[in-house]
């Protein structure tokens, strides 16, 4: 049996797209970003993706966006392979995107999540994020109306 190593974190790239797509589909199901959206996120210049690996295999990713002349970064997406959820990978990714944001001189990080996504709400609350506002109808779900989001923020020290 292969020994399970400690999770490692590194910058992701377009080379990781197959593994990221698979995690995205398994973590989000019907609400997953599709391949072109993920390719865009990995390819554009104003975004950085962090990936966590175990034994060299990608088990989670988080993508943060930056805007010109803004010191606020935006956590665009985070997902952990369902087989590894609840073991601290999400926490590692959050810490990494915060570190990356600080390196880019950002003073604040902002994100949105579905108001009923319990594991995400827990992750952000436990990571020191505070609720900024409820955003009505933030998510448009084909054939299923729209859903509210909760916007969180964290001041980066
Ligand atoms: C949300 C998600 C990224 C969390 O990643 P994770 O690796 O499972 O989270 P962690 O193991 O690092 O847990 C972080 C904290 O959240 C809590 N938590 C995580 N999942 C939880 C769950 N299902 N129920 C209750 N608490 C949970 C943990 O207790 C932990 O708190 P602690 O460190 O204070 O004990 C992951 O569940 C996921 O990919 N979900 C599907 C995709 C998604 O919803 N992404 C977010 C969209 S905004």
**Average pLDDT across residues?**
95
**Which ligands are bound?**
coenzyme A
Distance between the termini: 42 Å
Supply the number of helical segments: 4
**What summary fits the major beta sheet?**
7 strands, mixed
Beta-strand portion reads 35-45%
Shape: globular
Number of domains: 1
Q: What is the CATH superfamily classification?
A: Gcn5-related N-acetyltransferase (GNAT)
Across the major sheet, the strand order is 1-2-3-4-5-7-6
Order of helices and strands: EHHEEEHEHEE
CATH third-level topology = Aminopeptidase
Could you state the oligomeric state of the chains shown? Answer: single chain
Structural class: alpha+beta
- Report the strand count: 7
Radius of gyration: 15 Å
Uncertain ranges: none
Helix content: 25-40%
CATH class: Alpha Beta
Please tell me the CATH architecture by its name: 3-Layer(aba) Sandwich
What does this molecule look like?
The protein has 157 residues and is of the alpha+beta class. The chain has a single domain, classed as Gcn5-related N-acetyltransferase (GNAT) (Aminopeptidase). 29% of the residues lie in helices and 37% in strands. The protein is built from four helices and seven strands. It has a seven-stranded mixed sheet, sandwiched between helices. Strand 3 (57-65) and strand 4 (72-80) form a beta hairpin. The longest helix is centred in the middle third of the chain and has 15 residues, at 89-103. The chain is globular, with a radius of gyration of 15 Å. The mean pLDDT is 95. The chain binds coenzyme A. Coenzyme A binds next to helix 1, strand 4, helix 3 and helix 4.
